[in-house]
Amino acid sequence: MEKSWILFVALRYIFKGRSSSPVLAILGIAVGVLALIVIIAVMNGFQLGFIESILEVSSYHLRLENLPEEKIDELQYAMLSVPGITSAVPFKEFQALARGRRSGQQAVLVRGLKENTLEIDKSMESKLDFEDGYFDIEKKENVLLGSELARRLGLTVGDSVTLYSITGILSAENEGGVNNFTVTGIFRTGYYEYDCSWVFINIDNVSFLDNDSEYKLGMKIANRFMDRSILEQAEKKLDGFPGVKVSSWRDYNRSFFGALRTEKLFMFILVGLIFIVVGLNIFQAQRRSVLQRREEIGLLRAVGGSEKAVQFVFVLDGAVIGLTGAGIGLALGLLIASNIPQFFSIIEDIVNSFIGLLNILTSGMGFGMTEDFSVFSPAVFYIKEIPSRILAYEVVIIFMFGLLSALMAAWIASRKITRIQPAEVLRYE
């Protein structure tokens, strides 16, 4: 039986009807999809920025601990022979106090690296943005400081900074492991904790400051989500190295990454409530449409339309509403999420223009706003620009949420058709 009439009737009900409910439903779904895409993209930008700073600069993807110093080169070669491991960087680290030109001391974490670390570890190089100077720890007296740490200590490239090993102060006799260094680079990772408390020095100078620090080996892998299988292969390479432990980024960052995942999930749920509200609106509109069109439904049934075919007319209405709304929201959401800095810049320009107009109107009254409006002011937030990351699978999920909310609401509302009997409806027509 020819079913082409179903689409014709469905579109006629949407675009020729007198109700504005379909338009409001389309707008509601579009706003929901748009808001969810933009919010999740910005949240991804912040969260992935933090995660990448932690993994690429601090904790690495895999890490070996309890390494005997005489076996470092052998272990490094063994790890690089594991398929999937792209770099292996030996390092030491310890807690210390730093003193600069300004009075007072600042607690820092000192990490000793080799002078060719950035040549070995390209992903770390991509996360270190040098505001002044460059990565130069070839000489033992050279030191690299985080940007916020340098600001607090009042230091610039070429200045001298004194490091006091906390372990040395408590146990050593050589003036507490004190040494003066020359600042050769000031870096920024975008992660505040690192920028205000991290120091890089030459690994050969660590022993003078802290005798208790042990060698560790930080490794990067091509795909960090393959860490479990690569970790198993790495453990097989450690059979001849008793006491050496290997761990994954999931182990030593479990609580922090779990908190970020929970935060994102709850944000997804809260913003997703928009779809429930829109779905209820579509349900009420479709149910009202079924009641208003009882005679038309009865006529369609009387001329041969099956119960499911007539029900499919209203389900198709929901599909058209869902596809249209989700499509509009998807296009606008991707456009805004891909141009977040420009979008907020436009908002700030509009608000500042309005503030300027108010200042002109109120200038004679002795009050007004003088500061420019900024959505994310660098004076308050530790960011240079608003980050945004669009993940394809999340966009697909959001689009399907918008579509399915309309389809489900229309299907539930259309079930009332099964209780309409053509003979009773048309008896007095």
Q: In terms of topology, how is this protein built?
A:
Blueprint: H1 4-15, H2 21-59, E1 62-67, H3 72-80, E2 85-99, E3 106-113, H4 117-120, H5 122-127, E4 129-133, E5 142-146, H6 147-153, E6 160-165, H7 166-171, E7 178-188, H8 192-195, E8 198-202, H9 206-209, E9 215-221, H10 227-236, E10 245-248, H11 249-252, H12 254-292, H13 294-302, H14 307-337, H15 340-362, H16 392-414, H17 422-426
Relevant terms:
429 residues, 6-stranded mixed β-barrel
Give your account of this protein's structure:
This protein is an alpha+beta fold. The chain has two domains: 168 residues, no CATH class; 175 residues, no CATH class. The longest helix has 39 residues. The protein is elongated. About 2% of the residues have low confidence.
Kindly summarize this structure in a few lines:
Helix content is 55%, strand content 17%.
The H-and-E topology, N to C, reads as HHEHEEHHEEHEHEHEHEHEHHHHHHH
Q: Structural class from helices and strands?
A: alpha+beta
Number of helices: 17
C-alpha termini separation:
27 Å
